[in-house]
Specification:
Elements (H helix, E strand, L loop, with lengths): L5 E7 L12 E6 L5 H8 L18 E6 L3 E5 L10 H17 L3 E9 L6 H12 L4 E6 L9 H11 L8 E3 L8 H13 L1
Parallel strand pairs: 2-4, 2-5, 5-6, 6-7
Antiparallel strand pairs: 1-3, 3-4
The structure holds guanosine-5'-diphosphate (GDP).
Guanosine-5'-diphosphate binds next to helix 1.
Cofactor: Mg(2+)
Keywords: Cell cycle, Cell division, GTP-binding, Magnesium, Metal-binding, Nucleotide-binding, Septation
Organism: Trichococcus palustris
Length: 195
Amino acid sequence: MHVQDAEIVMSAVDPKQYPGTGFPEIALAGRSNVGKSSFINKLINRKALARTSSKPGKTQTLNFYLINNFFYFVDVPGYGYAKVSKTERAKWGRMMETYFTQRDQMKHVFLVVDFRHEPTIDDIQMKDFIEYYDIPYTVVATKADKIPRGKWNQHFYQIKKALNLPSDESLILFSSETGEGFDKAWKLIEDILED
Ligand code: GDP
């Protein structure tokens, strides 16, 4: 897909604030600072439409990005940020759960993890949650440029095993720096949107 038009439409906390257009949505979940915003920006060829920040835990709303007036990327705020209070965490949990369980036009979740490291307990819980609710998902392991190619296979299968993924296709290797995985991710998005 050639992205001609991308705009942030709204930041929402409550279902009443979700866009009412009915376009399909692809959600992005992942720990703070894992590279979610960079992943979106890379896919839509923008330097900074999605807010990237080295300060974890900044985005606390669902951010809807309208792409080509056709579908939305929905950036779900990062989990696993130690410094937020219990109350904040609970609020965030409810917002995420409401969106994931009640949003009919949400077609697929990209769970973004760090290719360098073993998935964390938060990553595993998020994947279990998505699976429990029977939501189609794909794991995106980003920052691949930070690992030498000779070790890609090893990291790939470590992550696949730790998350107990059903197939190799459930895991896409990505880099926002080099564009690794760009075509694969877009091909998948097109397939999701065609369904
Ligand atoms: P978010 O909190 O998940 O949205 O994470 P960001 O997209 O803001 O990225 C966090 C940090 O990781 C930033 O400093 C990015 O420049 C860096 N980063 C993100 N993706 C990549 C990648 O693929 N490769 C490298 N080398 N750095 C990345």
